[in-house]
């Protein structure tokens, strides 16, 4: 029998970053539970500022924090805006963790990313792979900030006895994603490019890189369920990987998105654009041993996101 570490019932849970894809999915998931969800207004509370974070937590006194606030973006945004990715993420992690300690938050879950692992990590990557080698250069700024977030939680556990934990998801996709082609991740980018090419009857779509890198994609509703599961059931110094345990090439992903969008033209690979890390498949045995498994298959998840895109974005055709 597993022991529940934190009971959600009648608790107030602060979801930091509720406007983003991850935070909004966590809010949706918590709405089905017997707890109160608290979110900080934006603009108004800037979680990069210590005084804002502390003031908000003092006034609202959450029992737990799910720290999903972050500066996020795809490979190009990470590579070209390193200062924003390192500064904003370091600032958010340190202000919220310290504010949570000062206001006696009972439990905090920090969310990072699978890009924390070394570029040449043995696959699938277990939690022990952290800091065993150099990082992938296109996202080392973001990765360093997320590693610092893990270390903050560990240090606060050791020195202050805070029940702060962290989890590292693989690549995520879902409703509410960013479809801006300069800053988005690959799923929304290819969905938008193929939809627009189909509408314009354009003969081809450009895919960045060689198409050979492999990525593991988790639907954000699965991520939200996993994060809440960990908040309830896990405590410990080591971070926990969240993923599906399965990956595919970017070329294969493009074919799946072609099926969903109905684009019939050619795929052209632009090798002047970066591939990023060759592979970052997560070992999810720690998560599955804690009693959680993903539910949403990639093909149905992609169809759902395409429907969301058609009904929410300002799209042609
Ligand atoms: O999703 P993505 O930007 O994230 O790119 P990363 C994944 C792969 O898809 C890369 C290729 O090999 C890209 O070159 N790709 C092909 C494209 N076409 C496109 C396109 O039109 N747009 C985009 N964005 N990619 C980010 C990290 O890495 O993922 C972050 O930079 C973070 O730090 C995040 O960890 C989850 O997996 O390469």
Q: What is the residue-averaged pLDDT?
A: 97
The stretches of 5 or more residues where confidence is low (pLDDT under 50) are none
Structural class per helix/strand content? alpha/beta
* Radius of gyration computed on alpha carbons: 19 Å
Helix content: 40-55%
Largest sheet: 6 strands, parallel
Number of helices: 10
Q: What proportion strand?
A: 5-15%
Count of strand segments: 12
Shape: globular
The kinds of small molecule bound in this structure are:
guanosine-5'-diphosphate-beta-L-fucopyranose
For the termini, the CA-CA separation is 54 Å
* Assembly level: single chain
Give the SSE order as H and E letters. Answer: EHEHEHHEHEEHEEEHEEHEHH
How are the strands of the biggest sheet laid out side by side? Answer: 2-1-3-4-5-10
Can you give a write-up of this model?
The chain has 317 residues and is of the alpha/beta class. The protein is built from ten helices and twelve strands. It has helices spanning 21-31, 50-60, 75-80, 82-102, 140-160, 186-199, 220-233, 250-261, 285-289, 298-312, and strands spanning 12-16, 36-38, 64-67, 107-111, 164-169, 171-173, 204-208, 214-215, 217-219, 240-242, 248-249, 266-270. Strands 2-1-3-4-5-10 form a six-stranded parallel beta sheet, with helices on both faces. It has a two-stranded parallel ribbon with strand order 6-9. Helix 5 (140-160) links the parallel strand 4 and strand 5. The protein is globular and about 60 Å long. The model has no long low-confidence stretch (mean pLDDT 97). Bound molecules: guanosine-5'-diphosphate-beta-L-fucopyranose. Guanosine-5'-diphosphate-beta-L-fucopyranose binds at residues 74-75, 78, 113, 115, 138-139, 142, 171, 184-186, 189-190, 207-209, 213, 215, 250, 273-276.
């Amino acid at each position: 029998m597993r022991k529940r570490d934190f009971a959600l019932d009648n608790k107030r849970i602060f979801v930091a970053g509720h406007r983003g894809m991850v935070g909004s999915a966590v809010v949706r998931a918590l709405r089905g539970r017997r707890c109160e969800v608290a979110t900080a207004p934006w603009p108004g509370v800037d979680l990069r500022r210590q005084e804002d974070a502390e003031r908000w937590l003092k006034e609202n006194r959450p029992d737990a924090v799910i720290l999903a606030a972050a500066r996020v973006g795809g490979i190009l945004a990470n590579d070209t805006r390193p200062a924003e990715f390192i500064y904003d993420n370091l600032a958010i992690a340190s202000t919220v963790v310290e504010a949570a300690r000062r206001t006696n938050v009972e439990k905090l879950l920090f969310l990072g990313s699978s890009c924390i692992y070394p570029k040449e990590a043995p696959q699938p990557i277990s939690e022990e792979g952290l800091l065993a080698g150099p990082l992938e250069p296109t996202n080392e700024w973001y990765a360093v900030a997320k590693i610092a977030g893990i270390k903050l939680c560990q240090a606060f556990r050791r020195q202050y006895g805070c029940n702060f934990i962290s989890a590292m998801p693989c690549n995520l996709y879902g409703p509410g994603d960013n479809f801006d082609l300069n800053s988005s991740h690959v799923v929304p980018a290819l969905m938008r490019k193929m939809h627009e090419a189909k509408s314009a009857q354009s003969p081809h779509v450009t895919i960045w890189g060689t198409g050979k890198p492999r990525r593991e994609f988790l639907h954000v509703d699965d991520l939200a369920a996993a994060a809440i599961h960990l908040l309830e059931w896990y405590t410990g110094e080591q971070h926990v990987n969240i993923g599906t345990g399965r990956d595919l090439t970017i070329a294969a992903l493009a074919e799946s998105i072609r099926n969903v969008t109905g684009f019939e033209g050619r795929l052209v690979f632009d090798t002047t654009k970066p591939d990023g890390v060759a592979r970052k498949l997560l070992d999810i045995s720690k998560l599955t041993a804690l009693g959680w498994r993903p539910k949403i298959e990639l093909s149905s998840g992609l169809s759902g996101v395409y429907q969301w895109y058609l009904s929410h974005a300002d799209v042609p055709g």
